[in-house]
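#struct-help
A.M.: can someone run this one for me? Single chain, 698 residues.
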Amino acid sequence: MNTTIMLFLVQDGITNGAIYALLGLALVLVFAVTRVILIPQGEFVTYGALTYASLSSGQMPGTARLAVAMGIVALGLDLFAARRSLHLRLVGRAFAVNIVLPVAVFVLTYWLAGRHPPIAVNVALSLLIVAAIGVFLYRIAFQPLAHTSVLVLLIASVGCHLALQGFGLVFFGAEGQRGSTIADTAFSLGPLRFTGQSLAVYAITAGFIVALWLFFDLGNPDRADHHLILRHRIPDRPERLYCRDHRRPRQLSADSGRGAGGRHGGSLLLVLCQQLQGGHRVHADSSGSGAALAGRARGRRRKGLRAMRQRLPIIVFALVVAAIPFIPGVPPFWIVLLDNIGLAALVAMGLVLLTGVGGLTSFGQAAFCGFGAYTTAVLTTAYGVSPWLTLPLSLAVSGFAAVLLGLVTVRLSGHYLPLGTIAWGLGLFYLFSKLEFLGRNDGISAIPPLSIGPLRMIDPGAIYFAIWIAVLLCALLTMNLLDSRTGRAIRALRRGHIAAEAFGVQTPRAKLLVFIYAAVLAGLSGWLYAHFQRAANPTPFGAQAGIEYLFIAVVGGAGYVWGGVLGAAIVVILREILQSYLPYIFHGEGQLETIVFGILLVLLLQLAPTGVWPWLMARLPLKHKRKRPDTSLALPSRPKAVAASAVLLRLDQARKQFGGVLAVNNVSFDVQSREIVALIGPNGAGKSTTFNLITGVL
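D.P.: on it. Structure tokens below:
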């Protein structure tokens, strides 16, 4: 490479980097304000370019019609949200923003199409159309989900990406268009040639960066001081306090005799001591021991009945699943569909534990399916190993890969974690397609089926039972894990590692454990998939499959084991229906199945933000009856504490530095008795760090 080629590459990199800088600014601003990781940002870029190209060639862009249609939907949502307090002014404002504005832009675009207006007019119209689509997209898709988690917003963002991608293919086709340049001028500087187009890119990027810096750094007069402290005196405590603990149906009393209250107090004391100290250190009062033992026996019987009632739906579900293949007239395709649902449900259960319970978002679970599938494919075809003997080896390989990847991945947090899983998911997908002994892109075929004696599970109806037995066993194991001490540690991860570590949870170990468990379930799904399809290639283990698995977990209910099964059924059946019937109805035009799938995904999330499974459970007529606390009982009043001024907490010259970032700089204050002290400051001012310094976490 000579100097001239290097300079050309540097120039091209700077020009493309300026464009990506604008995209980065947009993504950062959107995430900082709305918590939305705007995956459709690429569609906005495409819409802007192709809208400008259509206007330059004298055509009417389809994005103008899309803006009008989205405005009509936004108007309906605004009127529905304000249906209880509608008045003429509100309706008029909503009509002006959602209807008048996009219709005016549409009429202007229609009038200018074919008249070849100046380039500046085409640029302004393109920006106006795309900006209107962005406003309506937020109102339709994201504003109803503003109270939900970042994960739900991320899945909704992916759904919007699918829908807008399909609309783009319908409006502009797959070939694209060419637009006229903004400026035709050019000049040379040594071996380099600078065009007016590239100079315009540099100027616009620099102008936006400076304008945004001035707006956010200098135009905000409400910035809080770093050390602003508010003090508020605690009012006199109320005269009477009421007991709201349903475990104490009687007013607390110092009497621990043989009466009813004393027996209840002894039983309660025994339970509390067991929970806090352990049963081997309990020394209950002998006067209440008989009632305590009887109460414990009754508790065990109630617990057994409760467990039986909880297991009854699982037993009924297992019987229904087992009976489906024996129903006369069931099409074989339905059995294949149920097999695919079971395979997807296994991966979704791992994501329920990893993402919904543990709070670790992963887009790379499909790669662990690939480890399980390729392990059994290589061993059975190249070495003649029995498929059943490859099962533990497939799970071991998936688990070992999870250990290697998890040691790096679980150290990430925030949006870096899902980005990291996307990175190694893509890397493993390309690794599967390049290795010779894995068959490269063609994969491995002629994998032997599972067999038990003379029974060979070649037919989808035969392997159906193996798949769903695995689903039921994994569901029971996952529920037992969540109810264990380890499961409680995993649940604590979702609220942050500091609180979990304060209660003795080893967060790196817990994160790695749940990561390995989810990978093992995905490996089991891959092992079954290989013997179900009797072939393995890289396509089912790519990034697209990983995104779909996360869809399944979130749609079904990311925090519910059976939500993974329900989500698998919804997504697999919905995708099959759309792919089979929409092209038949509309004669295969465009990407209508992608559009409808993305729209339905967003609608499902808006209908049930926490998942379809909890939404259904909340609407069942049979609900678990909870014992309501008795709020009519009052605690005896106590004398007021003598008001005395005393320093309860004093902080003197607290300081904390993370590398080159000074988070807390010599903060000092004190807290007097009967006083509330509030530390106020903007994001990043060091409030949480100061609190962690006080509590000893840092």
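A.M.: thanks! The longest strand covers residues 647-658.
D.P.: also worth noting: The longest helix spans residues 289-323.
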